[in-house]
Give the backbone structure.
Amino acid sequence: MPSFAAFGNDLYTGRRSIDFVGRRKLWYAIAVAAMALSMLGLGVRGLNLGLEFRGGSEFRISKAASQSENLAVDAVSSVVAGAQPPKVSRLGSDGVRVETDKLTEQQSVAIKSKLATAYKVPTDSISSTYVGPQWGRDVSNKALTGLGVFILAVALVIALYFRTWKMALSAIIALVHDLALTVGIYAIVGFEVTPASVIGFLTILGYSLYDTVVVFDKVRENTEHLGSTVKRTYAEAANLAVNQTLVRSINTSVVALLPVASILFIGAFVLGAGSLKDISLSLFVGIAAGTYSSIFIATPLLADLRGREPEMRAQAERVFRKRAEAAASVAPVDAADGGDVLAPVGAGVLVTTKAGEPSPTASSATRGQRQQPRRGGSTARGGRPGGGRR
């Protein structure tokens, strides 16, 4: 059984090929379905915004005798009747965090005393913090502004580097897919969105673009002198680039996902650390989505955009015409032996057909040339008129 290294070498040299670009409609459908599911989760459940974004009061209890959530709920409700239930989470092995809506100074002091009694700790072991809603709105606006500036700057840099806006557009669309998928998963699982989550979002932007730029660089290398050759179409050259970088993308993603998965597991299930799980979930989902989008979305979309250009369409027609001529010259010999013929179908895809049968994309002129008998009577195998043999 061939090794993974041999498989990667076959992909790089072209001995084997996975048709990523040819199946682009399938990948588009999967991406649209995933984004629709993410947006549905966002619309139905919404984001679980942290205290820094919605404002309110926070109490942190250290060295608590118990980590029961009911104790905190009862303590808050005994002071503020009819208030929204507080958000209670564990911090490590003996810590508790309690988040409430906006409180007055007297209410904060009373809740702090109640929490000390409920968790059997001195009052000094409880710290309280208040965040105003205006500060949360400022943080949200600055985060959105930073995201917009980042996307514009990246689009400009990619367009200048690759000398085409179509690569920049493809990369940005793949990036939006990664962000939408990550935000939707946050809404579905209910993880809290905190400044640590925003840091994770910005990190996955860079990772997703890095993987996409690597593939695009190989696409540019494979298509640099494409107009003067009839060996491959643009779609085929782009698909070859994806195959050549596939093993590298898989290795890089696995190496990045393993430690992030460990942090996510430890933060969510072992330590109960909110900041760890907030940032690690965005990293985990973003890295996986970024790897997928660079292979299945960005490159096929680029092939679609560039394939519509007149010069690329003319070059593709020359490639198919050359292949049809080569197949026509080989077909009479193969037909006598009952062999098969390779015929072009679609954007650079070859299929095997029985000799003597027309290709699905063969031109009517070519088929007509095959069916016309030679002058001077029918020609039998051996090339002599009249069917005689030497």
